[in-house]
Write a structure and sequence with these properties.
The protein has strands spanning about 5, 10-15, 20-25, 35-40, 45-50, 55-60, 65-70, 75-80, 90-100, 115, 120-124. It is built from no helices and eleven strands. The protein is mainly β.
Length: about 120
C-alpha cells in the first residue's frame, strides 16, 4: 500500500525558510516521478515542483530560485527546501506520486497518489 506522509510545515515570517519532507513507502520500484503541490485558501491547487527518477527537477515560475526539490531514495523521502518565503506562499502543501518512469510529463497529468498535506503559513 502506497503511503505519503508530509511534515515540516509551520509558521514563519516573510523572508524565512522551511524544509518540507514527504516520507513515502509501498513502491515496488523507482519508476515514478514525485511532485509538490499547494493549495491556498480559496484558490485552486497548483503544482510547485517536480522531480523525475533521474533527479531532473521542474519548477513553476513563481518559486524558481527560491525552492529546491530533492529526493533521497535511500531514506524514501522527498524534500522541498523553501527560502525567501513570501506571504503568497501560504498554503497547504501536498506531495504526490505519478507512476511514470520517464521525464516529468507536465502538470496536466493526474497524480496517482497523494499525501494529506502540511500547512505553511507565511506572515508579513
Amino acid at each position: 500500500q502506497v503511503q505519503l506522509v508530509e511534515s515540516g510545515g509551520g509558521s514563519v515570517q516573510a523572508g524565512g525558510s522551511l524544509r518540507l519532507s514527504c516520507a513515502f513507502s509501498g513502491f515496488t520500484d523507482y519508476r515514478f516521478c514525485m511532485a509538490w503541490f499547494r493549495q491556498a485558501p480559496g484558490k485552486e491547487r497548483e503544482g510547485v515542483a517536480a522531480i523525475d527518477r533521474h533527479g531532473a527537477a521542474t519548477y513553476v515560475d513563481s518559486v524558481k530560485g527560491r525552492f529546491t526539490i530533492s529526493q533521497d531514495n535511500a531514506k524514501n523521502t522527498l524534500y522541498l527546501q523553501m527560502s525567501s518565503l513570501k506571504p503568497e506562499d501560504t498554503a497547504m502543501y501536498y506531495c504526490a506520486v505519478l507512476l511514470w518512469g520517464g521525464s516529468w510529463p507536465g502538470w496536466d497529468y493526474d497524480m496517482d497518489y497523494w499525501g494529506k498535506g502540511t500547512l505553511v503559513t507565511i506572515s508579513s
